[in-house]
Amino acid sequence: AQSVTQLDSHVSVSEGTPVLLRCNYSSSYSPSLFWYVQHPNKGLQLLLKYTSAATLVKGINGFEAEFKKSETSFHLTKPSAHMSDAAEYFCVVSDLGGSSNTGKLIFGQGTTLQVKP
Amino acid sequence: KAGVTQTPRYLIKTRGQQVTLSCSPISGHRSVSWYQQTPGQGLQFLFEYFSETQRNKGNFPGRFSGRQFSNSRSEMNVSTLELGDSALYLCASSSRGNEKLFFGSGTQLSVL
After folding, report:
1. Are A81 and A18 in contact (CB under 8 A)?
2. pLDDT at B49 over 60
3. Segment A37-86, tens digit of pLDDT
4. What's the distance, CA B63 to chain centroid?
């Protein structure tokens, strides 16, 4: 069965400093991994998606994530935090369950990113 | 292109009532998934519909049901509401499922 574990429930950084949000995954299959962001009172927005084409995935708003199979990790990074990055971030794995197409996503518990001025 | 539209935005119901939530996917998307988000349980998958057929189902009781129409619009229904059903219900659409999902802003359901 697929699962994801976000290692930090809350991360606080100063504006202009790097961001690191950690995620470990467990998957019986070659996983599809995602990072989504949720701003207050908003729906979820896809930041980036990994599907085995490249281990370093670039997303929107300067975010990127590196897939490390040996460490079963998919950490999200950004070189310089902006105040607008303050939000809830979710690491997500797609539950293929043996079929090639399914819209079932398994979400981590989320990491709240606080950005201090 | 218009995004995923969920209506209503807010709902207040009392225990024992039933409720129907609506989701209009992005034009051309045939897959619609529903998720429940609560502070305690996080985001949990309810079910997915593709071309009017339920393709996948999460671990929720039978009080939670859904359907999809020929125009890909979807509804979910919760019968005999319980206090624990209070949550943000999110709908997401994609062209085939297992692609990047586009989420609506959700329906905030409060059960009193």
Report:
1. yes
2. yes
3. 999 877 899 999 987 778 899 999 999 999 998 999 999 999 999 999 99
4. 13
Out of B55, B98, B103, name the one closest to residue A44 (CB): B103
CA dihedral A87, A44, A3, A96 (to 10 degrees): -160
B64-68 sheet: strands from edge to edge: B5-7, B19-24, B74-78, B64-68
Nearest chain A alpha carbon to B93: A103
Contact list in B for residue A101 (CB cut-off 8 A) is 31, 50, 55, 96-98
Residues 6+ apart with CB under 8 A from B99: none
Query: Count of residues for chain A?
Result: 117
Selecting from B43, B45, B55 the residue whose C-beta is nearest the C-beta of A90 gives B43
Phi, psi angles (nearest 5°) of residue B105: -80, -10
* CA atoms of A56 and A49, how far apart (whole Å): 10
Which of A91, A107, A111 minimizes the C-alpha distance to A24?
Answer: A91
Q: Do B101 and A103 touch (CB under 8 A)?
A: yes
Whether residue A44 lies within 8 A of chain B, CB to CB, comes out as yes
Cis-peptide, bond into residue B8, ω within 30° of zero: yes
Distance from CA of A45 to the nearest CA of B (A): 7
What does the pLDDT read at residue B7? 96
CB atoms within 10 A of CB B3: 14
